[in-house]
Design brief:
Elements: H1 3-16, H2 22-37, H3 48-60, H4 65-84, H5 111-125, H6 132-151, H7 155-159, H8 164-168, E1 172-176, E2 182-186, H9 189-202, H10 206-209, H11 226-239, H12 249-262, H13 267-274, H14 279-282, H15 286-300
Antiparallel strand pairs: 1-2
Helix pairs in contact: 1-2, 2-4, 5-6, 6-9, 6-12
Length: 305
């Protein structure tokens, strides 16, 4: 049985029928091809014992339980497809247990660290001593950081923002997120100012002037890649005296949510702002609410002392 051809057929179905995003398809491809190369005879003809042995092998190689569970989920989807298409008469994943995984608390940053990061970005964006290209890069990075912390956008949503978001200068805008769902997100005054400064600077770059994207780039997508932003963000963190290993675009998204909750926001409101389809996803932040309740009781209950 030709595993490579079966995997391609599965990915085509995920794209055409379920509208899976490119990132999702790439993740499925990596996981299925890795499993196929790790199983004698390939994945499509594997039995339950073969898949169990593969899962044991990746566990022994040090893959985290979350990674193991993700790979098993991809394999399950693949065999459901083969069964539905009549390419298999059985589903060998039916008897397999998912790896046990805890739910780790999201990495985040304190309000003081976030303030230092943004202040450093603003300082660099306002440095008149920088050369043209360095100043352009500094203005772009300042806008990215301000908008990310003001909105809590996913990094893929942020880098692909349309230029109209900055041109309108509104306090709110609509973003299309996972599952093609739209949601409204707020823009702080500082974020709007940083975006306008970047918009003015990029208008002087002929290659960018007509781009429909706020953060254009000479890439296949036409906009800044997530990897470039992540790299620039780590560099900014190091210059602000923050360990670069501690920060990523996703960490700033978590900081947005955590800081809102610490300062009295409702969990349902944060769910809507983050674009989580299910409140259970947002409940990773309940530790923040618990800390807030303890502080509330300790500060205000008459018998707290």
């Amino acid at each position: 049985m030709n595993s490579a051809a079966r995997i391609e057929a599965f990915l085509e179905m995920m794209s055409a029928e379920r509208g899976a995003a490119e990132n999702t398809l790439s993740s499925y491809r990596r996981d299925l091809e890795d499993a196929s190369s790790g199983i004698d005879g390939g994945l499509a003809g594997a039995g339950a014992a073969d898949i169990r042995a593969y899962l044991d092998d990746i566990a022994a190689r040090g893959f985290a339980p979350t990674s193991q569970a993700r790979k098993l989920s991809a394999i399950r989807q693949f065999f459901k497809f083969l069964y539905a298409e009549g390419l298999r008469t059985d589903d060998p994943t039916g008897t397999l247990d998912s790896p046990k995984k805890g739910r780790p608390l999201p990495k985040t940053m304190s309000e003081a660290e976030t303030g230092r990061l943004i202040d450093r970005a603003a300082q660099e964006a306002g440095d008149a001593g920088l050369g043209y290209s360095d100043r352009l890069a500094a203005l772009r990075l300042h806008a990215l950081v301000e908008v990310l912390y003001a909105t809590g956008l996913r990094v893929s949503e942020l880098v692909g923002l349309p230029v109209t978001v900055a041109q309108r200068d509104d306090r709110f805008f609509m973003v299309r997120g996972k599952g093609d769902k739209e949601r409204m997100v707020p823009l702080s005054a500082k974020a709007r100012v940083a975006m306008r400064a970047w918009l003015a600077a990029r208008s002087g770059v002929p290659a960018f002037a007509e781009s429909p994207f706020l953060f254009p780039a000479a890439s296949d997508s036409g906009y800044l890649s997530r990897q470039v932003f992540a790299r620039d963000l780590k560099g900014l963190a190091a210059r602000a005296g923050i360990a670069s290993a501690k920060i990523s675009p996703h960490v700033l998204r978590h900081a947005f949510a955590s800081h809102l909750l610490q300062n009295g926001a409702d969990l349902r409101a944060v769910q809507q702002l983050l674009g989580h389809a299910d409140i259970s996803t947002t409940q990773i932040y309940t530790h923040v609410l618990e800390e807030r309740l303890v502080r509330l009781v300790n500060d205000h209950h008459p018998l707290a002392d």
